[in-house]
C-alpha cells in the first residue's frame, strides 16, 4: 500500500490511491514463464528425436575384402587373417629382414567366447597349461603340503622347492617362504584354512589342479607349465614360443 508522504509532490496521486481498490481483481496474473518452459521442453524433445533419427540413418560403409593397389587406406578393408603355419612363416621372415634376435618371444592374443545364458559375463580366472614344447629354461618354485613321509620323499625327488606340513603356515604368513605355486594332498587341507586369505588364487584346489594324490604330475604342471590369465573378461595375452 502506497501513501503520500509530506514533502512529496505527485500530481493526481491522491486520486489514483483512492481509485486503487476498484482495480483489484480476483483473477490471478498469467504466468508467462510456465508456457515458455513448456515450449522449451517440447523444442528440446524435438531436437533429441531429430538427433536420434540422424544417428540411425548414418550407417558405416561396408569394408572391402582385398585391396588392389600397394597403397590403400587400411580402415576401408577387412583385416587380413592367416593360418598358423603361414603366420609363423611370416614372423620368421620379418625376423630375418629386421635383424632381430631369433630367440625373441612369440606372443598371442586369444579372444574367448564368454557368452552365457544366465550370467551376463564370466569372472576373470587364471589357470596353468603344460605346453608340448618348452621355450624357457627356468622352472617355477613349487611348495608341497603333506605330512606323509613317503609323499614328502616323492615330492623332493620330483623337484619340489619346499616340502612340509602345518609347520610351514607360520613362515608363509610372515613372508619367510615365497614360492610360485602351492600344491597339497587332500588329507592336509583342513589344517591349511588359515592360509586361504593369504594365498588367495594360489590356494590349493582341484579346480586349478593343485590338489590331489598324484604329486609328480602336479609338480610337472606347476614347475614347467605356463600360467595365463583372462583379462578384460574375454582376452588371454601370453607368450607361447620363441621365433
TrEMBL record:
It holds the Pfam family Ribosomal_L1. Its main location: mitochondrion. Residues 40-54 have a biased composition (Basic and acidic residues). It comes from the Eukaryota. Keywords: Mitochondrion, Ribonucleoprotein, Ribosomal protein, Transit peptide. It is found in: Mitochondrion. SUPFAM superfamilies: Ribosomal protein L1. One of its GO terms (cellular component) is ribosome. Residues 36-60 are annotated as: Disordered. Belongs to the universal ribosomal protein uL1 family. This is Large ribosomal subunit protein uL1m.
Amino acid at each position: 500500500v502506497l501513501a503520500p508522504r509530506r514533502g512529496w509532490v505527485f500530481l493526481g496521486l491522491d486520486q489514483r490511491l483512492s481509485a486503487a481498490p476498484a482495480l483489484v481483481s480476483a483473477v490471478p496474473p498469467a504466468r508467462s514463464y510456465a508456457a515458455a518452459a513448456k515450449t522449451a521442453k517440447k523444442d528440446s524433445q524435438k531436437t533429441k528425436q531429430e538427433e536420434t533419427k540422424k544417428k540411425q540413418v548414418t550407417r558405416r560403409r561396408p569394408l572391402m575384402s582385398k585391396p588392389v593397389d600397394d597403397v590403400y587406406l587400411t580402415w576401408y578393408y577387412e583385416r587380413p587373417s592367416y593360418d598358423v603355419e603361414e603366420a609363423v612363416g611370416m614372423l620368421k621372415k620379418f625376423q630375418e629382414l629386421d635383424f632381430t634376435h631369433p630367440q625373441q618371444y612369440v606372443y598371442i592374443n586369444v579372444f574367448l567366447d564368454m557368452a552365457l545364458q544366465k550370467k551376463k559375463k564370466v569372472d576373470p580366472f587364471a589357470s596353468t597349461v603344460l605346453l608340448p614344447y618348452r621355450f624357457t629354461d627356468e622352472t617355477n618354485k613349487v611348495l608341497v603340503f603333506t605330512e606323509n613321509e613317503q609323499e614328502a620323499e616323492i615330492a623332493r625327488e620330483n623337484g619340489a622347492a619346499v616340502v612340509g606340513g602345518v609347520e610351514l603356515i607360520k613362515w608363509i604368513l610372515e613372508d619367510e617362504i615365497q614360492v610360485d605355486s602351492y600344491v597339497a594332498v587332500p588329507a592336509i587341507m583342513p589344517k591349511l584354512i588359515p592360509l586361504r586369505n593369504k594365498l588367495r588364487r594360489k590356494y590349493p584346489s582341484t579346480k586349478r589342479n593343485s590338489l590331489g594324490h598324484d604329486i609328480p604330475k602336479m609338480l610337472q604342471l606347476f614347475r614347467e607349465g605356463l600360467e595365463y590369465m583372462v583379462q578384460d573378461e574375454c582376452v588371454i595375452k601370453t607368450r607361447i614360443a620363441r621365433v
